[in-house]
Amino acid sequence: MDILERFSKYIAFETTSSEESDTTPSTRCQLDLARYLVDELKKIGVEKVTLDRHGIVYGWITATAGYEDKKALGFISHMDTSPAASGKNVKINVIKDYDGKDVTLPGGVTLTVRDFPHLKSLAGRTLVTSDGTTLLGADDKAGIAEIVTAVEKVLSEKIPHGPLCIAFTPDEEVGRGADHFDVGLFGADFAYTVDGGPENELACETFNAASAHIKIHGVSVHPGDAKDVMVNAGLVACELAAMLPPSETPRYTQGYEGFYHLDAICGDVSQASMSYIIRDHDRNIFENRKNTVREVVNALNEKYGQGTVELTIEDSYYNMKEIVDHHPHLMENAKAVMEELGMTPDVIPVRGGTDGSRLSYMGLPCPNLGTGGYAYHGPMEHITREGMELASAVVVGLIKKYAL
Q1: What is any Pfam family matched here (predicted)?
Q2: Which of 118, 155, 381, 404 has the most CB atoms in a 10 Å sphere around its CB?
């Protein structure tokens, strides 16, 4: 099946995950795509395809005769799309022979070269977007399409290969993609997630990540009698935010620079709540950032009274580079495959996380490959047919490389 046709079938499924849900998967609609993928994998010849009770699709392919001693290689993508934008009733918009200039989508959103300078480099390709009223879903249905297309090619063309392991997870976008992943059942010695940006992107570095949840208890009295009595929870929240380094927020950071990100805030005089995400590539600096938040909270409790501010910090994932560095062949082989395909590998630190962040620390070293997509999580998300084809070719190339 043509990769664009396959991708268009996947994005027709609504698979938005939910941060509020306490079920697994977080939304039942993800299971619709999961069941479709089970059937598709079986049709193209993948063996022992299963959908487990947590909504994870697993599939295995026995090694070609004579290649049984090769290392088991895995490929993983996620089925859910971000709750940051609607993923319902996605309408695909295909622009053949794109001219590399500003383009207005049917829903009125305009992709501009000013905002997305890389658009110039996509001239001559087939540009794929939504209609501009929803996200597209390339994150990460493009990754799924690329893996399935690669596997179909390997099987139909009888390309020699070692043991292959395939998995598609739910809830990656809400940080739960690896919560129930069974590394032992999966059986791969190492794997690649296909969940990045441009098709030549290659990453083995992610943030160390934590979430900080803050509750502020105020004292609400009549403003006329408030002298030395009132504690305005809303103002304490503002004070807390101002006590963190103002230049260390996402707006002012890039590359390896970490940050404190105020993700949500609400409240009034009597109660307020805040949610922060804390990120840094360096583990020591990451720990220092968490301590800084604790120190700010302690200072406010000394000022307004113990118990005024409650803080809970939870680690989310760690920089997978600490694990992947012990398996240099993973990066070396991916670079070699890209170069053989005429691509220039772009080895970057991911300013976020992937399922591979968690999986690497669960015993499955797992760097991340690009899908060819851009501007994820919003209505300006876009990808190209050619980018998907190259990303799929990288998967095929790795399968061949690990069979040598």
Answers
A1: M20_dimer
A2: 381
344-363 confidence digits (pLDDT tens): 999 999 888 788 999 999 99
Query: Domain extents for the chain?
Result: 3-206+319-401, 211-317
Question: 106: which 2 tokens?
Answer: 């049917």
- 146 has a pLDDT exceeding 90: yes
Q: Is 80 a catalytic residue?
A: yes
Q: What CATH topology corresponds to 211-317?
A: Alpha-Beta Plaits (3.30.70)
pLDDT, average across residues 54-81: 98
Question: pLDDT tens across 10-53, in order?
Answer: 999 999 999 899 999 999 999 999 999 999 999 999 989 999 99
Paired tokens of 190:
């190492």
Question: Which of these is catalytic: 172, 201, 280, 355?
Answer: 172
Q: What is the pTM of this model?
A: 0.91
The pair of structure tokens assigned to 46 is 């993948």
Q: Is 99 annotated as a binding residue?
A: no
Stated as kind and residue range, the H or E segment containing 354 is none
Are the CB atoms for 200 and 344 separated by under 8 Å?
Answer: yes
Domain 3-206+319-401 part of CATH 3.30.390.50: no
Domain 3-206+319-401 and domain 211-317 have a common topology: no
Q: Is 268 annotated as a binding residue?
A: no
222 is an annotated ligand-binding site residue: no
